[in-house]
Structure formats: structure tokens, C-alpha cells
Amino acid sequence: MELAQLAGRLCAVLDATTNSRVAQYGLTRADYDVLAALRSAGGELRLKPTELAARCRLSSGGTSNVLRRMSESGYVVREADLADGRSAWAQLTEEGLLVTTRIQDAVAAVQERRLALLPPGAVDALSALLAQAADVLEAAE
């Protein structure tokens, strides 16, 4: 089987785990991706919508829709950028941080159980090879 097909199969299995946990919280995968990106932003847990769109591979309109839903759910607040009146920050709320952490913990637990079925060292070796392949192929573009 071709490498891209195998990578796609692996991605589909891992994504299904994530998507099922995300759905338990009434969120879409795009919602979760935005919340997770904000959580990983560090510091004040905030990013500009353009940064979120790039990190989550969403269109600007898709990002706006997700931010609106997450704001209505109380997971994100929008704050004006005082240094640049044309833009705003999207910031994770305490409730947003809590739900994101719960989902990430649930996903990690399921994936750990599944990946434990592989031989010892296989996950680390596979991760290293995939990272190397991604780096080389991205640099070649």
C-alpha cells in the first residue's frame, strides 16, 4: 500500500477517536481545533483570527463562524486590539480552557490505549520517521 494511503488510514483512525470525544461535548472538529489552538498559544491564551485560520487550516469565514459559536457558548471572548483598532483578539475563557483540557485528556487516554497495542518503541520510531518525512517533503516544496 502506498505511503500516503497508509498515512491516511492512520490519520482516519486517530481522527475518529478525536471526533467522537469532541462530539460528546456538542462541538464540531473545527470548534475543537480552534479551542486547542488557543490553549496552545501560551501566555494569555489568545490569538488573532488570521493566526487561528492559518493554524487550523480554516477560511476566514469559517474561523469567524467558529469564533461566533464559541463566543455564544462562553468558551471564547473577543477583545479589541488596543494597538490595532482594526482587529480583535480571540481569547480562551476559563470555561473554554476546562472543556478543551477535558477533551484533550479523553482523547489522549483512548489513543494511549490503542497505541499500546503496538510493539514497544514502535510509536516513538514511527513518530520520528513521520516527522522527518514531513520536514523533508515540506522543505522540498
TrEMBL record:
GO terms for biological process: response to stress. Pfam families: MarR_2. Gene3D superfamilies: Winged helix-like DNA-binding domain superfamily/Winged helix DNA-binding domain. GO terms for molecular function: DNA-binding transcription factor activity. Residues 1-135 form the HTH marR-type domain. InterPro entries: HTH_MarR-typ, MarR/SlyA-like, WH-like_DNA-bd_sf, WH_DNA-bd_sf. This is MarR family transcriptional regulator.
